[in-house]
Description:
three-stranded antiparallel beta sheet
Amino acid sequence: MAIKLLFIVSIFTGILLFRCQELCAQGKVDSVHVRNSADSSSAFVKKMNAFAQRMKDESAGDFESDRTEMAQDRALDIIRKSLQKATLYLKGGIDTLGFAQQLTDLEKDFGVASDGVLTQKGTAQTNRNLFATANIINELLNKTLAIRNNLAIHHETLSAFRFQLDSLSNNPVLFKFPKDSANTVKYLQHLVVMAYQVSPIDSSIKIAAANVRTLLNRTDMIALKLQTGLEEVHLYQRKMAIGVFNREFGNIWDPAGYARPFSEILTQAKAKGELNLMFFAGNNSGKLIAVLLLIITSYIYLRSLKTIYIEKGLLNVNFDGQLVLRYPQLSAMIIVINIFQFIFISPPFILSLLFWTVAAFSLSVIFRNYINRYWYRVWMIMFVLFLICACDNLILQASRTERWLMFFISLSGFLVGVTVLLKGRRSTLREKWMIYTIGLMTLIECGAVWANVFGRYNLAKTLMVTGYLNVVIAILFLWTVRLINEGLYLAFNVYTRQEKKLFYLNFERVGNRAPTFFYVALVIGWFILFGRNFAGFSYIAGPLQDFFTREHSIGDYTFTINKLLLFLVIIAIAVMVSRVVSFFASDGHIATDKNNVNSKRGVGSWLLLIRISILGIGSFLAIAAAGIPMDRLTIILGALGVGIGFGLQTLVNNLVSGLIIAFEKPVNVGDIVEIGGQGGTMKSIGFRSSVISTWDGADLIMPNGDLLSSHLTNWTLGGSHKRLSILISVAYDSDLNKVRKVLAGILDKEERIHQHPAPVVQYEQFSNSSIDVRIYFWARQMKEAGDTRSDLIIAIQTAFAAQGINIPIPQQDVYVHGPKDEI
């Protein structure tokens, strides 16, 4: 446009100059000619103005045309990129067939869950069937909502693509055509090509959106069915919890009001059990792996302990007091399963049954040929009856066949319990508390018989299972505590120092008995497992669970008790792990092997850093889990800074000094040190202070700040060897070469001193009554320096006596001159 403007201006200027030259060449001109020339000039100016306006209009039109063309190119480029994104998304973003198959599977599983509760209900509902059905439907509902969320995201994305393409296609700039017919044809051809590209993609997007919309509608219908079914199941459960003692059926000898083939009932129970187990295992796979790893770790500990007892000949033939070592792998399974089964929240009965069966079977193998034969038979009868009872509990829908089976199972438990109570050999019973659990089982099974006979099916089944479970769980827990105590006691006795294969665990700090809270926890666990079988348990625990999960507010901060407890648990775990790591830093960690003094050096120097890292990570996770806002944390840190400025300088100094010690490593756990003339061994390096075990047997607790600023002598850094000297006096008439030879021979034979550098024998001076000889030598171990010096003195005295070399006794001659007698 600028070049065109310059061209017009140059033409206009040239014409004016040419016209001026013609006027100047004429000379004189009369007035008429002047007037005519003026008129001609005015017409010329008008023509030039018209020409300029025409050129201006043409330039403006060209500018607008260029701008329109650029806008059209941008719009078409955006459409092209949107088409590429939509094509890629359609190729890999939507699996409608997969979603449809998942919904079909959900509907099929819902049909399995509904059987016996929502369909083919029978005469009455059963507690086990309702519980299993509620778990399955709840899991299916969660999966359905997850599928709906994914479908909604896909539908929103497809709608966004359609909206974008429609808005771009309706852009007004695309419908401005060039004035030139040739350019218009070319532009229309471009639009036709773009339309061919947009049309199939737009159709595919519409079809995909319609398919997703159909799947969304189907998902909503399934979710509605699941939600309605779950509410109906909860209604049944509430009624059952209220009417625990209500009669559901007629007496056991009355004719059945509803008959369903027993094979169908078994098939239904099998299908629901598999679904429950599959869903729960999938959601808790991490916990299951953790339990397996704990079993392996416990087995390694117990196997190492057994190996040491075998090597030292301490293992009893009958394993009396050492039962935990009889089968380490079985003991590990019993201990871990019985303790860590509580990390699974509301597990399906089939999973709990697997845990209890494995633990009880392991205990049965350990019991064999160990406990009294009579009580072993009693245990095996209880175990077999428990397995039969548990298998019956897997049957979810009531039937007359099962009622008779329940009757004989409960009656058998009652008869066995009465026989044991009346004729049991209590004097040979190792765990006296077992007799009380057997008595409780007898009463419960008696109640189960009565409830079953008179049509109270759910109560009868609950009592039957609870009675046997009470005995088996109680015995498992009693022997779990006993095995743990045996393991701690045996390890406490044999591990006088930490072993690598036991991860340097310090049993002196752990103790030789399980802590009291462990017993309390197992008793609480027994009550939970005992009460979980009753229909009203969830409604008793429901308000408590609601209290823990309900949000509470303090000012602007909202929290739940669960989050606070999670915060405390994470902090407690971090502190516990930190303390376990601190087992590295103890007397037991110091090597006693003469030839392997520095084998563990370097481990303890990182302990403080590791502990700080563990506590730091634990604190961060606890704060994140509790949802504590960072602005509150900033306020706390600010207040802490003020406290440090006023009164915590010493504490902070010790903490920072501990970090400096951990990084610079001027001293390490196990090092032999000397501070202020007092020697000892570094026992531990803590956050605020360090502990030095002195040679006198006391523990010197020194703040890290004082330790870092003191003149500390670290003998271990120099290799734990020390140069010593012994001063010897020999008589003046001794053969000095012989003396040197005898001393050199004694030093050569001593293995506790270094030969490189070699010992030195030097004659120092002539004393009043002897010649002084000093020997210098390097003790290999700082700890053995005193013993080495003592043994050398004995050896020198013995050798000198044998070789006739005298060690003179210092003596002085005193002459007394009295006054002369006066004559």
